[in-house]
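Moderator note: this is an archived Q&A kept for reference. The question asked for a predicted structure of one protein chain; the sequence and the answer are reproduced below.
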Amino acid sequence: MTFLLLAIILGCALLAIPFGLPGTWLMVLAAFAADRFGDVPIGAVTLVGVALLALVAEVLDLALSARYTRKYGGSSRGVWGAILGGFVGAIVGVPLPIIGSVLGALGGSFAGALAFEVWGGASHDAATRAATGAAIGRALAIASKAAAGCAIVAWVLGAALF
């Protein structure tokens, strides 16, 4: 019964990742709870491994947005605009079912980078280019975090079964 509950929680947490929710950390918490309080022996090596993988996913999440904003000519001001805009956009997009948070995060990253670049004195063309990079970086960040989530699910369920 604990294994089934763990699998359901891991699946829901995986679905939460694209919406900007801390799905990887929910997975780590669920694995720890199943190991510690349930009858599913996961093991310390797996728990530490998935926690490190979740940490790497979080760092990649921020780094990809920043890297692509800069790659497309953005300044550090644009990077901060992309990060803040992505968070705000994900929250604002929540009322639109299923895909609202994802579109909100992408649009928010674009709008945040654009606004902060223009505020910093960049031309409209340069700000638009940096904002495009921010949106591309955010999309790649969402994809990389979802991939890390898939790896965490496979690792935890594999450890629980074998």
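Archived answer notes: Residues 2-161 form one domain.
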